[in-house]
Amino acid sequence: MNTRGVVVALLGVGTLTAMDAVAKLIVSGNLHLAQIMAVRSVVVITLLVLVFGLRGDAASLRPVRFRAQLLRAAVGLLAPVCFFASLRYLPLTDATVVAYSSVFIITLLSALILGERVGKWRWSAITVGFVGVAIALEPTGEGSALGYGLVLMASVSYSALAIGGKLLGATERSSSLVLTYNTLLGVTAGLWLPWVWQPMSGGDIGGIVLFGLMAVTGQLLLTDAYRRLDGSLVAPLEYTSLLWVVTLDFTIWQDAPGARTLLGALIIIGASLVVIHREHVNASASAPTGTTRR
Fold it and tell me: How does DSSP assign 56-101, residue by residue?
């Protein structure tokens, strides 16, 4: 096993989970979400340009199919907006568990849009997975119900974004997709600024800069992990985020997850691992003889 790849993957998951905790702290304040997303996008874009510029690989940020990238970015706009908005109403653990449903939605969309064959094992796992999501949903009032609804909308939008990435993967670099997406997100959020802008304190600015820095760092770490390891190994490691969010929720907000949330999480993770395993089996079966998987 590539130990370094596993460590990089765990660091990436931990960084992105900590980013969600920072996001919860920020969105729970007085700043409008549009202002937060606009400033975050500026930070992310600046960091991407600096990182790839210093690498001497700035050309990889240039889109090949610009209109197609814009369409993909547009259908994915609700993913971060709805997820971060949900953190106003939900504990971090609850939001993260329900967001795991994107694994099943991506598989569904892959069958419907990409025409990928989904066998009985994966259909069964998808069904069981959504049962887990239903168990994890335990709204206790209007605020919580709204929070769960926002997470589900975020999962659908994220899944559409992922499918768009698959469709464009043959011609577009990952760095280009990330840059175009964050640019459109920043421009869209920026349109609201004349009506929602508020002066920011040093703490606000520092929090949003940290937010953006963690987003770029986490994505780069996970990208490197997928380069070093087979995807079927990296994907299960992403579920270690559950340990992080439970710890962060209890340490920062003194929120302990309910029994239904934890039971739903176990069902969702188990069903997701079946989906991931079957995708790996099918990919291996279709690979040419003698092909080395890395």
Answer: T-GGGGS-SSHHHHHHHHHHTTHHHHHHHHHTTTS-HHHHHHHHTT
